[in-house]
Automatic annotation (TrEMBL):
Pfam families: adh_short_C2. Belongs to the short-chain dehydrogenases/reductases (SDR) family. It is an enzyme of class 1 (oxidoreductase). The keyword Oxidoreductase applies. This is SDR family oxidoreductase. PROSITE patterns: ADH_SHORT. Keywords: Oxidoreductase. One of its GO terms (molecular function) is oxidoreductase activity. SUPFAM superfamilies: NAD(P)-binding Rossmann-fold domains (SSF51735). Its EC number is 1.-.-.-.
Amino acid sequence: MHALPQPAPSRAGLALAGKRALVTGGGSGIGLACARALSGAGAEVTVLGRREGPLRTAVAAGAARDAIIADIAGALPTLPACDILLHAAGAAESAPFLESDDALWQRMLSVNLLGAAAAMRAVLPGMLAAGEGRIVAIASTAALKGYAYVTAYAAAKHGLLGLVRALAQEVAGKGVTVNAICPGFAETPMTEESIARITAKTGRGEAEARAALARHNPQGRLVRPEEVAAAALFLCLPEAAAVNGAAIPVAGGEV
């Protein structure tokens, strides 16, 4: 007996079928994991980022249907209408406070705070007109506590969380929710860059530097991007309509 070919699974029964999602920083790390999760739930995903190669790879792998090449810290092009904005673009630089010059501060604020505000400002009118929408910002445990040698980054992430909480109050009752996910150190290219900086400045080996970051997590490990994406996906579901202005740590109990 020969098995009959099975039809391709329908997306109609998926939780986010028919929803349009825009993921900034969607070419790698947490952004890519979020794009995969949203696409897997049925959303039509567009990824946005600076590097064309990773974005095209994400599209080719089925994590997204389209890509926009743009720098979130610069002038954004006209963004497509969307039901979901997942803002995962970010960058971290470390230096002692007295060695953090104006240029470093401007880079951290532009990428981690002002870029988020620009993206939210671009898509929010459409969400309000539709009477529904989800905005999820990937912040950091550095939005909830201080870390030495990353004052500019921590200040920008604290600002991002303030933006989320304030905007959530403005849109409450209008069908739109605004929330933040606050991951600890995760298995991402940005963490790899941090490890490289630690080894370069201290002479410690890569394994030792990685272990030093993992010790911030009471579970003794780095967070997986898929764990962050699972929390972000929940916030985009209809069942999360009452969650607004939240800051959800995904950090193994660090905060």
